[in-house]
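lol ok so funny story. i was supposed to be doing the assay writeup but got distracted and ended up predicting the structure for this chain instead. priorities right. anyway since i did it might as well share w the group, maybe its usefull for someone
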Amino acid sequence: MANPTHYLRRSAFFFALYGALAALSLWFAYELRFSGDAESAAAGTLTSEGYLHHQRPLALLWVVPTKVCLLWILGQFSGVFYYFRLMDAIRMVIALALAAGSIFLATYLFGIVRPEDIFDIPRGVVLIDFNLSMVLFVGFRVSIRAMRERFWDKAQKFQGARKRIAIIGAGQVGAQLAAELLSRRGHGIEPACFLDDDLGKHDLRIHGIPVIGAPERMAELGGKYGVTEIILALPANSVRRIREVSTLAGANNLRVLVVPSMPELAGGRVRASDIRPISVEDILGREPAQLDDIAIDAMVKGRTVLVTGAGGSIGSELCRQIAARSPARLIMVDQCEVLLYQTEQELIAAGAGALITPIVGDVTDADRMRDVFTRFKPRLVLHAAAHKHVPMMESQPAEALKNNVLGTAVVARLAAEHGAEKLVLISSDKAVNPTNVMGATKRLAEQLVRKMQVEAGGKTSFLAVRFGNVLGSSGSVIPLFRRQISEGGPVTVTHPDVKRYFMTIPEAVGLVLQSATLGQGGDILVLEMGQPLKIIDVARQLIELSGLRPDIDIEIRIVGLRPGEKLVEELNHEGEQYHKTRHPRVFRFVDDKGWKDSSETLISHVQALLLLERQPCKQGMRDLVPEYVPFVE
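and the output, tada:
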């Protein structure tokens, strides 16, 4: 609650200030209307001298308080005095116009009741007073802002030079950023110029800041403009251009920052000046996929949804996106209570606390999972729980089989038994012609849910969604490279020709949900991953984003392929038939090489493998997945 004393002092200050300006405006309005014009007189008995010496003093007594009170009622006392922007000026002009209209109406009524009354102010005076008021009130506030900014400029020069930046992108976001930085000059950042690809904006000024040309003129920024950093204010769908500009900046020793996206700005969650260092996701990401929100909402809204592996990179993002679509209940299952707690707290902070139920549980524990399905009866099940670390699973194939295959069997059986409408298995591109244990177990999980689709008789739809690496997931190369860079290197790359498909976690999860609306029972859906990227190029980009030079400041060391690692991952088997779906980034693959026996037979074979030593276990997996080529130690 506002301090009453502060409020009274503030109100008294504005009453005195605006009262003085209103009196000055009205006084000069009479002077301009009647002074030196002996012939001028309104209809009535008053002469020009009468208006100046008799009516003007009385008009001041009621017009000034009336105008100031109307300004107070219309909110002109609530703004911060030395902040005054275009919208503030527009609101003040509207308030002054309403005040002038009220005074005009009052004088008109006075004229009807008593035509010769000295309170009948001439219309010309009211009009002149309105124009003078606009000049005085707006001009005074603008002058105060200009003097304050001049004061801050001098203070900053006294304290030391401000950091000068260039804004890349002279569109709406760039202009908004410049305005916010100019209004916060004491924070030590000064926009020196804009760079933009639009030729029509070159040599123009935005908020007084010149648009000097295209980003290719970046080499001039350091010497001519004293710029040390650039801020990207480009659309989120300009990923290729963002990548090009960041490369130019690195070549010119300029640090790169970015502004929030337009959806974030429109949502009011952030301001344009909430800048942050550019991330690898900004550079390696791609144009956002357009989702069919109506179809996804229809699948999620008002239904109970269960997510396994809810504490992991993919599982937690599934929970975020599902919680935002108003499910009746979101059941979050994970065996790691620490990660599950983090996801829970994040959703509570986002206002979804009433929708979520965190469950600590292991998907291989049939009794625990049966209790969850019996209590909540989920309609949609998203199965993301899995062991995914390739080298670690090479040394522990039985654990990979137990979690990735038998855990899937437990969840899929219970989904069918309790009438779930759909189960979506999160698979991997490593399931295609696998050369490692993790990929082979994912291939077995795909075959298992396809066989269960046949056995379920169509009551529950089982489908798998296959995609590649996601940027920033736990255990991926991105966090590893960041840690190695922070420690001074070296950055380790397994092979100079290793390539991987990458996509951001939010995009992958959004497309998983989209796939769930498109897939039919037994489908294997594959996300379009774009072009594979060389891991060594990713390492170089991360080093440059850290303001360092690859092979000079940070060594890149080739250490050799890890057990089970491929040079290039694949997205489909040779025998799988490719089909388009309604979404350009989701494809359906169908093959006739699935598991021929029952799901129970497959499960029995897997259970038998758990009893074997490491190498015999891998050889036994090859009997179940003929295309699997195990790593030989």
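The chain has three domains: 4-154, 161-278, 293-624. The first strand starts at residue 163 and ends at 168.
back to the writeup now i swear
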